[in-house]
Amino acid sequence: MTSQMSKSETQHMIAKRVALELKGPCTVNLGIGIPTMVAEYMTEDNIYLHTENGLLGVTDVEEADIDPNLVNAGKLPVGEAVGASFFNSSDSFAMIRGGHVDVAILGALQVDETGVIANWAVPGKNIMGVGGAMDLLVGAKKVFVTMNHTSKDGSSKLLKECTYPITSTRQVDMIFTELAVFEVAGNQLKLVDLMPGVTLEDVKEKTEASFIAL
């Protein structure tokens, strides 16, 4: 049961499930948080990781080989795969806006029942900001979202309508939580998978947004 798992175990479970949806060849941009963990579970060699601060061909790096100048958009140390390319930020965003990123994997604060997300601002709180999320939502061919199903007080983060400022009017393609996996189609959420030990009733109980159970 997910309720018996630690925060880290839950996050890794979500990341592992996302990785199952990635089929190469493709270019994938990983956001901050759970998305960065997806790289640990990718099994295909022809998936190329992109970070908007200027590197295509991101890979893991051993602690002894960390270069403080070589980080991803979340300021975490990264390595260079064989054949990696460096470029400036404007070229990186040109890749995103030009439709050259196949999949963007983002975190979210809220998602509404049509697949529109809020992931950059909490009213009254000073947080990091939007980063490249607006561009990725518009430019990436597919957008996957990873998030906790509920907030700390137990309230649903899958809502009928977002109460935080939305990031883009573009709907995401898939949503992954510790309880379930949803596809977005026809302005509706469609439940396509349950996480281990989770029942449909568990999901209904903790989801404000309406959804179709396939």
Topology as H/E string? HEHEEEHEEEHEEEEEHE
Tell me, briefly, the overall form.
Answer: globular
| Mean of all residue-level pLDDT scores | 93
Number of strands: 13
State the share of residues found in helices, binned by percent. Answer: 10-25%
Unreliable segments of 5+ consecutive residues: none
Q: How widely separated are the two ends? A: 22 Å
Class from helix and strand fractions: alpha/beta
Major β-sheet annotation: 10 strands, mixed
Q: Tally the helices.
A: 5
**Beta-strand content:** 25-35%
Gyration radius, rounded: 17 Å
Tell me the strand order in the biggest sheet. Answer: 4-3-2-1-5-8-10-11-12-13
Describe, in plain words, how this protein is organized in 3D.
The protein has helices at 7-19, 34-37, 89-97, 133-139, 200-205; strands at residues 26-30, 47-51, 55-59, 79-86, 103-107, 110-112, 117-118, 142-146, 158-159, 174-176, 180-185, 188-194, 211-213. The longest helix has 13 residues, at 7-19. The protein is built from 5 helices and 13 strands. The model has no long low-confidence stretch (mean pLDDT 93). The two termini are 22 Å apart. 18% of the residues lie in helices and 28% in strands. The chain is an alpha/beta fold and 214 residues long. A 10-stranded mixed beta sheet has the order 4-3-2-1-5-8-10-11-12-13, with helices on both faces. Strands 7-6-9 form a 3-stranded mixed beta sheet, with no helix packed on it.
Write the layout of secondary structure elements.
Elements (H helix, E strand, L loop, with lengths): L6 H13 L6 E5 L3 H4 L9 E5 L3 E5 L19 E8 L2 H9 L5 E5 L2 E3 L4 E2 L14 H7 L2 E5 L11 E2 L14 E3 L3 E6 L2 E7 L5 H6 L5 E3 L1
Parallel strand pairs: 1-2, 1-5, 5-8, 6-9, 8-10, 12-13
Antiparallel strand pairs: 2-3, 3-4, 6-7, 10-11, 11-12
InterPro entries: 3-oxoacid_CoA-transf_B, CoA_trans_fam_I, NagB/RpiA_transferase-like
Family: Belongs to the 3-oxoacid CoA-transferase subunit B family.
Pfam family, one: CoA_trans
